Structures are given as C-alpha cells and as structure tokens.
TrEMBL record:
Keywords: Cell membrane, Membrane, Transmembrane, Transmembrane helix, Transport. SUPFAM superfamilies: MFS general substrate transporter. GO terms for cellular component: plasma membrane. PANTHER family: PURINE EFFLUX PUMP PBUE. This is MFS transporter. It is found in: Cell membrane. InterPro entries: MFS, MFS_dom, MFS_Efflux_Transporters, MFS_trans_sf. It comes from the Bacteria. The chain crosses the membrane at residues 7-28, 40-63. It comes from Heyndrickxia oleronia. Gene3D superfamilies: MFS general substrate transporter like domains.
Length: 80
C-alpha cells in the first residue's frame, strides 16, 4: 500500500500533461494577437502539434518497446 501513492501521482501527472495541450485552444485569440496573425493561422499550431503527436507516438512506442514501462513513463514525463 505504500507504493500506491506513486501510481496516483503518475496518473495525475500524465493527465495534466495530456490536458495541458488543450489550454492553447482557450487562449488562441491572444496567441494570434501576440504573433500578429489571424486566429486561423495560429490555430494551425494546434493542428501541427496534434499531427506530430499522432505520428510520433506509435513510432516512439515501437522504438521503446523493450524498455521498462515505469522508467519510460518517468523519463518521458521528465523530458516533457
């Protein structure tokens, strides 16, 4: 039972990392204003990120298939 808190912390961190990307859509108009572009052009930032994430995730999973999953999760969260 003493290691159960580690699972909850990792789950919380994974949730926060995953949902933090959606914050950009909430402040997209401000990002566009700061960059001096239209909202549609700034919205492409979300599209490019999503595509890179969708394409890169299976590739990285295949490359790291033999690693210990707990260590891999910790390293990737630390890198992020």
């Amino acid at each position: 039972m003493k290691n159960i808190w580690k699972v909850y912390v990792l789950a919380l961190i994974s949730f926060l990392v995953g949902t933090s990307n959606y914050i950009v859509s909430g402040i997209l108009d401000r990002i566009a204003e700061t960059l001096g572009t239209s909202v549609a052009a700034a919205g492409q930032l979300i599209t490019v990120y999503s595509l890179a994430y969708a394409i890169g995730t299976p590739i990285l999973m295949a490359l790291t298939a033999k690693m210990d999953r707990r260590k891999l999760l910790l390293y990737s969260l630390g890198l992020f």
